[in-house]
Request: fold
Amino acid sequence: MQNLIYIPFYNLLILFFAITRDMGVAVILLTVAVRVLLLRFSTKAEKSRLALQKLQPEIKKIQDQYKNDKELQTKKMLELYQKQGINPFSSCLPLLFQMPFLIGLLVVFREGLKNGFALYGPIKSLVSGLTISSMAFRFLDLTVIPNKGYLLILPIFASVLQYFQSKMMMVKNNSANEANASMNAMMLAFPVLTIVFLITFPAVLSIYWITTTLFGIFQQYWIDRQMTKESQGS
Reply:
């Protein structure tokens, strides 16, 4: 993991810091770089989610028709997904792919900035004589845990953004489908889990979460708009 994620992350972070001279901006740029790296997976997942929403009437029909035979119901649902080329679990993939990067960012801040990881030759030359600081935007130490005072605004803001993203991802027409209603309720629990999670970790994680959620919201809006245009055009 160190050679695969931690050291490359550390080098990329230090490169962005050397360019911007601000660790907060460096973390934002690193987060955007990760999201661009995962763009193919997240785009595919979002398209699958939208396609799955459009199938809700057919899904509801299968559930009603085979409500007394769960095995056959599952078989028919899988046949429907296969026919439409949809993976119902693909919406979870971006989060799973992000986990190693999220852990890597924490390790970089907990160990990399404290003890230092190996730097690649060109980056080592670039930062020669430069003091590497964990300060962001000239006032925020990213190693501080934002669980009190004005720093609470970070996890709160991240939670609000998570709420808007969850609302965008909620399955429509859920009144006709109890399973979808449960899924939507779970989506709305994410913002609460977000704030509870972030107030226990250094502020760097809040900056990462805010940036990645904003990226996801704009990406989601753009894909939704493009697919709506395509469906209207056809």
The mean pLDDT is 82.
